[in-house]
Automatic annotation (TrEMBL):
Enzyme class: transferase
Gene3D superfamilies: 3.30.470.10, D-amino Acid Aminotransferase, subunit A, domain 2
Official protein name in the record: Aminotransferases class-IV
Family: Belongs to the class-IV pyridoxal-phosphate-dependent aminotransferase family.
Length: 282
């Protein structure tokens, strides 16, 4: 079951007009929310990021926070089963093709649920590989826009190389992954790129920094050079669907000891404990 413009219906029965601006221009934003045991994870933070994206493209939020909550609870309930993730998609609506914003048009609102397969223990134990590429995306990466072709092409580079992710570099600095945020460890300090227009403000990124601060893990938020990335003792990626994963090879070269490091193991344990506490409703 999915939700489309005020109705819950089977996905096979869902259609949008070909003149929808999301289809024609990629004129819209989206959000992804993990759901564990029917409980949306950090929902307030996800809805706040959705609002930031809507503000960024000058599109009024079609629903209040309470209405979003009600719709999300209904969709989760109608897609019973294991863990899932919700995909929320809002476009500027349907109008004749013209670059300028149309007046008096209702936005298109779409939500669907997909089974969530988080990384298994093997990946957490052995780690994953990544490659690097130049970040050639647009200048407002803080907006979670549906026009993701640059990310698609960059992510495909990782698939072609049989690796997990493409880590992006712009002007000699680390920005993020094609579909994730990136942390590194140098001199026993956890380093994170700053949240600005060059990267999406990740919900898991924020949680990792909260856990680091609450558990006396030394950390800094600052620009990270390509040299620092390539000589890091540890590298890890975070996202709502992959949680936190250690990167042990970068462009074919080992990262540190080529095994998940101590900081990753500590953060992953803290993350899993936090998630379990939230799922218990405490």
């Amino acid at each position: 079951m999915i939700y489309l413009n005020g109705k819950f219906l089977p996905i096979e029965q869902a259609y949008i007009p070909v003149l929808d601006r999301g289809f024609i221009f990629g004129d819209g934003v989206y959000e992804v929310i993990p759901v564990y045991s029917c409980l949306p994870f950090r929902l307030d933070e996800h809805l706040a990021r959705l609002q930031h994206s809507l503000d960024g493209i000058r599109l009024a939020n079609p629903y209040t926070v309470s209405h979003w909550r009600s719709l999300i609870e209904s969709l989760v309930a109608q897609n019973e089963g294991g863990d899932q993730y919700l995909y929320l998609h809002i476009t500027r609506g349907t109008a004749r093709r013209d670059h300028a914003f149309p007046a008096g048009v209702e936005p298109t609102v779409f939500m669907m649920s997909t089974p969530l397969a988080i990384p298994g223990q093997e990946l957490l134990t052995t780690g994953v590989a990544a490659i690097t590429a130049q970040d050639n995306r647009w200048g407002r990466c803080d907006i979670k826009a549906i026009s993701l072709l640059p990310n698609v092409l960059l992510r495909q580079l990782a698939v072609d190389a049989c690796t997990m992710e493409t880590i992006l570099l712009r002007d000699g600095l680390l920005t993020e992954g094609a579909a994730s945020n990136i942390f590194i460890v140098r001199n026993d300090v956890l380093l994170a790129p700053p949240k600005d227009h060059r990267m999406l403000p990740g919900i898991t990124y924020d949680l990792i920094l909260e856990l680091a601060a609450a558990n006396a893990i030394t950390h800094e938020i600052r620009d990270i050079s390509e040299y620092e990335l390539r000589t890091a003792k540890e590298i890890m990626l975070t996202s709502s669907t992959k949680e936190i994963l250690p990167i042990v090879r970068l462009d074919g070269q080992p990262v540190g000891s080529a095994l998940p490091g101590a900081v990753f193991r500590q953060l992953n344990e803290l993350y899993q404990n936090y998630k379990a506490t939230v799922m218990r409703g405490k």
